[in-house]
Amino acid sequence: MGSWDLPDDSGDDGQDLAAADRSTRLATVRFVPETTRLIGVYDAKGSLLGEVAYLWGKVRGTRHCALCDLTHNRVRRRPEWDQLVARLDVPMDLLHLDELPVDVADAVAAHGTPVVFARTSEGLQPVVLPAELDGLSGSVERLGDLLRAHLSGRPA
Known about the structure:
By secondary structure, the chain is of the alpha+beta class. Helix content is 42%, strand content 19%.
């Protein structure tokens, strides 16, 4: 079940807003559908050839995937990533470009990669876009803050 995103009823000075203003603000109430699953999409293919091509590009400095940097160190999966996923209230899938179901491929075409989507009753919703993932500079903690804010229905 989702939740309702209600506007704040107090003005900047903490005083109650006039009834007319409040009714105008209540018109902006929107339903925030419940997230049933998070889906992270890497900017890389998952096949052996795809992995090798990504690693070669990374070594040469011609490939970069911010989600890859969040989930893996140079050799293996980052323990802090696994800890974050274990603490989330919903499951999270990580997919490569050659593993996408049709709806995820369509969302990727619209938003780019790497990206994190929420699967909701209203379809896929972007949660963390490519530029935002880049801006995290590899911080799993900061990504966790964004994901938890989304799941709780509050702004990040």
